[in-house]
Amino acid sequence: MERARSDREHAVARVGDLADGEMKQVDAGDTPVLLVRRDGAFYALGATCTHFGASLADGLLIGDRVHCPWHKTCFRVTDGAVAEPPALNDLPRFSVRVDGETVLVSLPDPAPDEAVPTMVAPEPARDPRTFVIVGAGGAGNAAAETLRREGFVGRILLVGLEDRPPYDRTKLSKQYLGGQQGEDKLPLRARGFYPEHGIERETRRVETIDARAKTVVFADGQSLAYDALLLATGGTPRRLDVPGAELANVFTLRTPDDAGAIIAAAHEGAKAVVVGDSYIGLETAASLTNRELQVTLVGRSPVPLAKTLGEPVGAIFRRLHESKGVTFRPSSEVARIEGDGAVSAVVLESGERLEADLVLVGIGVTPATGMLRGVDLADDGGVPVDAQLRAADGLWAAGDVAAFPDPRAGDRIRVEHWRLAEQHGKVAALNMLGRGVPYEAVPYFWTNQFGARLDYAGHAGQYDDLIVDGDLEAPEFVAYYVRGGRAVAAAGMKRDKQMIAFIDLLARDAVPAPVELRAGVDLVARLRGLAEDRVVAD
Questions:
Q1: DSSP 118
Q2: Strands, E, within 17-135: which ranges?
Q3: Local structure of residue 173 (DSSP, 8 states)
Q4: pLDDT at 461
Q5: Under CATH, which number does the domain 130-236+367-432 receive?
Q6: Mean of the pLDDT values across residues 422-428?
Q7: Cα separation, 106 vs 516, whole angstroms
Q8: Do 24 and 32 meet the contact criterion of CB atoms below 8 Å apart?
Q9: What CA–CA distance (Å, rounded) separates 419 from 365?
């Protein structure tokens, strides 16, 4: 029998305990609560981020938004609603009243940890339109949810290649492959969530999308006319073009099935060769090492991640991996893979032979856009879109496939990261509804290897100078990437508030000059000195 709910009031603070614009975690009985004071009013919210459970009191309050320290979700103070992903659920909001100098919070029993956003039910008689979302990843899921949150009552068809609910792809190379979480922790929503909200999920392969005719043709020959379509198909992992690449136990990682096959082959003490020193290569190397495999990482660069982070920052990850037992073969290329049915060795162009029970290839992805007709693709296969993520009349693109204009770079860029895909999905959905909302957020991603998290915000591409504030050896720092006399990106470890402040300042076009960054300017103080009522994009 379900337990009856009842409210109980708790004295949690004195009025003078919080200055205006301040937040702190308090206890309401046995329940931690985030208490916020803004414009003279008090707000009480759930104390932990609904994404991964970070303590929000360790984050930053900027205007009317609370920013999570870990993965930079932000929530509105006034109602607890998610303002920026990766969290999907809102914070619970609790009643607050002030009695004299005492702040009291009322909590139901039991107190919820999160609040599922309110969504409308479909009413096809009132809105006969069909919106099709091709791609059931982070962008596609965010778009479907946003449409229902924003009042769309027409038909939503969410089409994907896998017969499973949309899942958190970031966990595949980290918590799932590393053994910290099981497959049950992957889904973004329970399977029943989608029919409950009138989101039709179909497992089908799309053969053609005709942007001019506004039709989708499926692999079985059936076709469907759409009123609006979002292309959010992500990428296809690149494979090695060498002899032996087709042998058993040579893997790429994109789906839970891929991860499951890798785990099945990853018995303790096995020898694994990871090809690729990008984020996916390093994360999988860390996860396989956590499973007590002997891991060798083959990379083209002298230092991993040097192309995006610079050698001083990239060297942190080489030192970290080597301290855990990973062996590096830098500046190397694979010549062939040997084995009788299954892999037994990887031979480098230098002639060195690396014994291997399994090989994991992490050398990037190609945008999955081959089905699109009527739109000229970019040289790399990406879909050029405008500021509203529109590729053609009635057609939008989001996530890995979208080549979108970056207002800070002055050019189109394509970014293959989870949070941006979810942001794209939300913005595209709003524009499918005719809202005319440009995508202006600051790109952000994170990597986590052996428990060490690095945040990266902005988009540098090529840069002229690298300014480091902090200690790379610790490591505890923020590194600023300067192009054309301006800091256009930053990477940081153990500087959560500084990174949040950088993201917000970059969105405001208010990042301090390089000379100030080199002198160690306090970004949080600089941000707090700006007008609090200005709308923040990220």
A1: P
A2: 22-28, 31-38, 41-46, 60-62, 65-67, 74-76, 82-84, 93-99, 102-109, 130-134
A3: I
A4: 84
A5: 3.50.50.60
A6: 98
A7: 46
A8: no
A9: 17
Taking the CB of residue 340, how many other CB atoms lie within 10 A of it? 8
Q: Identify whether the C-beta of residue 272 lies closer than 8 Å to the C-beta of residue 359.
A: yes
Helices within 197-305 (DSSP H only): 256-265, 279-290
Architecture of domain 460-528: 2-Layer Sandwich (3.30)
Contact 61, 127 (CB under 8 A): no
Contact (CB, 8 A) for 356 and 345: yes
* pLDDT tens for each residue of 37-70: 999 999 999 999 999 999 999 999 999 999 999 9
Kindly report the length of the chain. Answer: 538
Confidence of residue 5 (pLDDT cuts 50, 70, 90): low
Please give the pLDDT value at position 537. 39
Q: What is the mean pLDDT of residues 429-446?
A: 97
Reference 523, options 536, 510, 532; nearest CA is 510
Q: Read off the pTM.
A: 0.95
515's CB contacts (< 8 A; 6+ apart) are none
3-state DSSP call for residue 78?
A: coil
Write down the pLDDT at residue 7.
85
For tokens 């979810």, what's the residue? 422
> In this structure, what token pair is assigned to residue 28?
């309401």
| Inter-CA distances, 93 with 23, 45, 63, Å | 14, 5, 18
pLDDT at 532 over 60: no
Q: How many CB atoms lie within 10 A of CB 242?
A: 16
Query: Do 250-356 and 460-528 come out as alike in CATH topology?
Result: no
**Is 314 exposed, middle or buried, given 0-12, 13-18 or 19+ CB atoms closer than 10 A?**
buried
Token pair for residue 209? Answer: 């999308």
Q: Is the CATH number 2.30.30.30 carried by domain 250-356?
A: no
